[in-house]
Amino acid sequence: MSKFELTPRYKDAAHFKSYWEKGNGKNIIEWSHAEVNFENFAKKSDLYYQVDDLGDQVIQDFYVNQPFHEVNQKIENYIRNGIPKDEDVPESVKSLFEFSEQVPEWLDHNLLKLGAEACMKTGRDALMSLRDYSLMGGYDYAYLNKPLVFTGALKKGALKRLSETLDFWVNVTRSNAMEVHAKGYEFAIKTRLIHSYARFHLKKYVKDWDYEKMGEPINLWDMTATSNGFSLVLLHGLKKLGNTFTEEEELGMFHLWKYISYLMGVPLEHLPDNKKEATESFYLWTSIQPPSDEDSVYLAQSLVKESLENPILRYQYQRNFLNYIHISSSKFLLDSAVFERLKLPQVWNANFIPKTLKLGNRVMQKYLSRETQIKRGNKLQMHILKQYIGITN
């Protein structure tokens, strides 16, 4: 039990009510048929003061007293090949890999496949929804971003952060990526330990972290919200851009992120199976998040500037047009109140790009087979990832 008692402190605030009564939240409730209330708040809110204890113990037992590079190489080898039988490792490391390598009975491989294919078939749209809606919109939740601020991750710059997010997302959403020892599985375990390592440093060096207001750094409730950003919010953005999905594809996307989040240390009972459960959970979490602050605006502005400075494109006019596309996309996908709080710039004829994309999607979905869409989308996403990895490395 936490020494703090959490309440839905922003449930009557203007930003909360605007989102859920007039904005995207209202639209998501109607789409998901969610029943939103605060009956389960106490059950969920305990997660705000809980963390991934097993991941944290691995950092304490394995990373703290050894050279980071050597330990990291060992962990990468364990992720890809398992722990050698003759190798002596701490009990926490054994427990982590016993958990990760044990495929749970509830896992449905067909749903995993459908979820991955749903991510791939939407091609560039998925990356736009991820960047301009999930990631940009996430900056509006002030407390969610504080670990980035306190760990100095802001100094990396938006290009590096975007490249890392893209690398993670693409690799966990490919066909068979979540098989034990496969690439997506590797990214899930690595990211779990990165979170624990960041939390270790925060607790060691940051003395003014406000636990009562902001919860534990990278707490389990924030992790469920992040999972919803990759599933619920991303999917909603794709639908706004004119992409259509079968009910099984939607369930597949939630099942995929349920398994990814499970491997990253989030308790199974708090992970949604569908958009209704995800919306009801997201509603509760947003009630404890204040709106944008100065750090939020800084992060948003950095993401805007990323396209203007992107070295992938050779000429400045190309970067200017890319910037126009992303701002137009955010203007279309985000609530107007969020757009204004993040101080995003206005652009001329902002609906032109989204409307063009919607028209193109209607035509593509009518005349291209699902298999062709998946193959085409996967190729495009992998190409864009390769470009980003090339410049950030």
Automatic annotation (TrEMBL):
Gene Ontology MF, one: oxidoreductase activity
The record's annotation in InterPro entries points to: Lcp-like, MPAB/Lcp_cat_dom
- The ER-bound oxygenase mpaB/mpaB'/Rubber oxygenase catalytic domain sits at 135-349
Which Pfam families would you find in this protein's record?
Answer: MPAB_Lcp_cat
The organism's place on the tree of life at top rank: Bacteria
List, alphabetically, the PANTHER family matched. ER-BOUND OXYGENASE MPAB_MPAB'_RUBBER OXYGENASE CATALYTIC DOMAIN-CONTAINING PROTEIN, SECRETED PROTEIN-RELATED
Q: What is this protein called?
A: DUF2236 domain-containing protein
User: What's the source species for this entry?
Assistant: Brumimicrobium glaciale
